[in-house]
Specification:
six-stranded mixed sheet; single chain; alpha/beta; 6 strands; globular
């Protein structure tokens, strides 16, 4: 970092010490920290952790040519990322409250609008007609690629609501040998007989 910018940052941090002493994590304090680091180093680490956890919302293009609208907030250090999957007819916005609680604890959060839902559907309709079918396997394929290849997550906890609960189970089975799936939580999981897949193209 250029000397002038670093100097300005240090001045800003010095002016913020009093405020940060009330809101920053325990290692930040007046004088020297318990680990022997100074206030500036502690504040610098604190601001860096905040800067690295900015939520990213964007449309992601997959190798299949399909697109998913996603929201991703990185985890602090080695904490896992919660993958929150909404239910049928919902969107990731319905999981805002739980996402805020989880990120406040330093965990990462990944949410998507599944195919046929929310902003994913809205963007799809800009270039296509309303889809006649939404394939369950397509949902799994694209979520797997997003988690493993694009975001390269290594530690995740899957949480699915209703239809999303069924998808979370399918994802867990696919990902168990590729990364560390810490848990699978289902809220009123959607369950359907396997032989009905051939009858109903939406599931």
């Amino acid at each position: 970092m250029p000397t002038i910018q670093r100097s300005l940052m240090i001045r800003f941090l010095m002016m913020s010490v009093v405020t940060l002493s009330f809101v920053a994590p325990a290692p930040v304090a007046f004088g020297r920290t318990s680990g022997g680091r100074g206030v500036i180093e502690g504040c610098w680490e604190f601001f860096s952790s905040l800067a690295g956890r900015v939520e990213s919302r964007r449309l992601v293009r997959l190798s299949s040519g399909r697109e998913l609208f996603m929201s991703h907030t990185p985890a602090n250090t080695d904490k896992p990322t919660f993958v929150l999957i909404h239910g049928l007819g919902d969107s990731m916005e319905d999981l805002d409250a739980i996402a805020k609680r989880i990120t406040a604890e330093g965990f990462g959060v990944l949410r998507v609008d599944l195919h046929g839902h929310g902003m994913t559907l809205e963007n799809f309709l800009k270039r296509h007609e309303l889809p006649k079918a939404i394939d369950y396997i397509d949902q799994l394929d694209d979520l797997e690629e997003l988690i493993v290849k694009q975001l390269r997550l290594r530690n995740i906890a899957l949480v699915g609501h209703s239809y999303g609960g069924g998808i979370s189970l399918g994802l867990a089975a696919r990902l168990e040998n590729q990364l560390n799936v810490l848990s699978v939580t289902q809220m009123s999981p959607y369950v359907v007989r396997l032989d009905s897949h051939a009858k109903d193209p939406y599931f």
